[in-house]
Amino acid sequence: MGTTQLLFWFLSILAILGAILVVTSKNPVHSVLWLIVVFVAISGHYILLDAQFLAIVNLIVYAGAIMVLFLFVFMLMNLNADTEPQKNRWLKIAGVVTGGALLLVLVAALKKADLKAQMAEMGKGDIGLIHNLGLVLFKDYVVPFEISSVLFLSAMVGVVVIGKKAEEDKTTLGSQKYGG
Amino acid sequence: MPINYYIFLSVALFCIGVAGVLTRRNAIIIFMCVELMLNAVNLLLVAFSKMHYHAMSAAMPSAGIDAQLFVFFIMVVAAAEVSVGLAIIVMMYRNTHSIDVNFLNRLKH
Description:
Order of helices and strands of chain B: HHH
Order of helices and strands of chain A: HHHHHHH
CATH topology of chain B: Helix Hairpins
Number of strands of chain A: 0
Oligomer: heterodimer
Distance between the termini of chain B: 53 Å
Shape of chain B: elongated
CATH class of chain B: Mainly Alpha
Structural class of chain A: mainly alpha
CATH architecture of the largest domain in chain A: Up-down Bundle
Number of helices of chain A: 7
Strand content of chain A: under 5%
Largest sheet of chain A: none
CATH superfamily of the largest domain in chain A: NADH-ubiquinone/plastoquinone oxidoreductase chain 6, subunit NuoJ
CATH topology of the largest domain in chain A: Four Helix Bundle (Hemerythrin (Met), subunit A)
Radius of gyration of chain A: 23 Å
Number of domains of chain A: 2
Largest interface: A-B, 83 and 77 residues
Radius of gyration of chain B: 18 Å
CATH architecture of chain B: Orthogonal Bundle
Number of strands of chain B: 0
């Protein structure tokens, strides 16, 4: 068993273990931290698959920005294990059984798929480098790239509008003061 | 590695995400499980991109590069989605002082 295979199994077990702990942790902050572990493991998989640019972007955007945003919201709301709402036991069992049944069906359907000869060979190819990705991104995909900037702008405006709306109710007292 | 391993890993992560959405009542944890499913799909896209490159690289040197750009765009959309979703959850917390999704069953009554 070579080094890449060892790394593959280590990262796979880390990802699945982290994912299970995300779902089962009582404390929401621990869930966020385990989700960061999952994202780091998935970034490791990207590096194994020679997608270096995506690995770095995944680390920066997901493990960095998005997860910090989640943590920030948790701290804003002051949530912990005591305030965590719990479903009753039968609903939890039903949820786990449903997820397990989906896993069973997908694995059973894909087990017989004729993909044995198809390999995702590691350590070969340079399509994941930023040079090659950038050339294709700014030649063939320049319109979606620009549209995504519009998407970001609209998301930003939307967040500001949503965040402001609730504040207006609270500040009616203040506006009354100015109005009177 | 054979592509099967990546398929099964992604399927396992996706199903854990589904089970998390179904078992938790905390809105933010449900949101995080959705992110987990999104990342499982991204991982599978990158693995398929590598497989496609391995099969086609002799004829086309840039085979499989599109899938990696798709993953890039999925991340872009996910970042926007997370910001809007968290804003909605914060607004819901301001109104109900809870992030329990069971408070949001008013359509039933």
